[in-house]
Amino acid sequence: MSNIAPGADIADSASVADDARIWHLAQIREDAVVGRGCVVGRGAYVGNGVRVGDNCKIQNYALVYDPARLADGVFVGPAAVLTNDTHPRAVNPDGTPKSAADWDPVGVTVDEGASIGARAVCVAPVHIGAWATVAAGAVVTRDVPPHALVVGVPARRVGWVGHAGAPLREEDGLWVCPLSGRTYREVDGELTGS
Question: For labelling, which of 73, 123, 124, 172 has a CA lying 20 to 30 Å from the CA of 84?
Fold first, then answer.
């Protein structure tokens, strides 16, 4: 566990892969799982029971609340937030403080290779599809299809992105990655590799 910086707070019941790197002031809560090759940045928070796949990057001060699920290769940008409460309140209607028993957490699910930009907010329960990109500062309030590029408040799809992360260009009925040359087809509002 030499990849864990002094000052990181790792719960005894958390499972952190030996080659994961956890930076100063990061907090990994009880029963969370952080996979192989992951990087959890300074001041980032990974909540109780959150599952983080292999080769993910959770950047500085990102907040990933339980019960979020991140597949392999997910990027969560600086200060991004994955929420877990559909009706947040500090108190019950009678004025008594809310406790863990007074609500049911709901999570954000992020599929393989997807990226969440800096200061974006994903309002649970939403599902971010594989290889999608949520732009910096976007507020996601509904599911994002695979390969979608979403921007704004609330987030809306403005294009498609490929596995390399670059916006795709439409050419002769195909969507083409300007970085890799890989082509994709759009069928019924979804993108598939061709």
Answer: 73
